């Protein structure tokens, strides 16, 4: 009897942990993206006093990204644990691989941007007029908005496929995830605010998982 209670508690705790990790990742990454988007001009022609006054916001965002990455890694782990023996090996491999690639590219883009910020703190005006700033800006944009977002789209598709087969969240949420994932994959980085779609989607499914878990606990208590 005691063993059954422990197993039940474990099954209830796992989705709750996934939801909390997903919500934490979403909020941190959304904050980072907003800080960066409002601080760095959309086009290179707008460089000037704008970035001079807001570069510290970019630095704050870059310091938050590692914590967002840790939360995302935790989210992947607990979702896989939740699937357990029900997971399809093919889609589970794509799910894990795309998630890790997204995380690696997120860290890579943040590292490049962090290097540029470090140089900026020493030679601000000289950096803005140099090729180093342009290279760092373009490289960061390409890694994050093109490659990382493609992996985010693949992660969303594999997650939605696993959810469709296991029923861990509603069908409408699954199909909505497919639409958003296809948008990220075919957008080719043309939409400046497109990266915010991914953390918003994770926030949506995490909120659903947390609500479903709390509802299940309430039914069990009754």
Descriptive overview:
There is one protein chain. This protein is mainly α and 222 residues long. The protein has one domain (2-221). It is built from 7 helices and no strands. The chain has helices at residues 2-39, 49-83, 89-120, 124-128, 131-166, 171-186, 197-221.
User: What percentage of the residues does DSSP assign to strands (E)?
Assistant: under 5%
**Low-pLDDT runs:** 1-12
Q: Write down the secondary-structure element order.
A: HHHHHHH
Distance between the termini: 18 Å
In angstroms, what is the radius of gyration? Answer: 20 Å
Q: Total domains, how many?
A: 1
Q: How many strands, what sense, and barrel or not for the largest sheet?
A: none
* Percentage of residues in helical conformation: over 70%
The residue-averaged pLDDT reads: 79
Q: What overall form do the CA principal axes indicate?
A: elongated
- The count of DSSP E runs of length 2 or more, i.e. the number of strands, is 0
Number of helices: 7
Q: In terms of structural class, how would the helical and strand content be classed?
A: mainly alpha
Nutshell version of this structure?
This protein is mainly alpha-helical and 222 residues long. The chain has helices spanning 2-39, 49-83, 89-120, 124-128, 131-166, 171-186, 197-221.
Structural key phrases:
single chain, 222 residues, mainly alpha, 7 helices, elongated, disordered N terminus
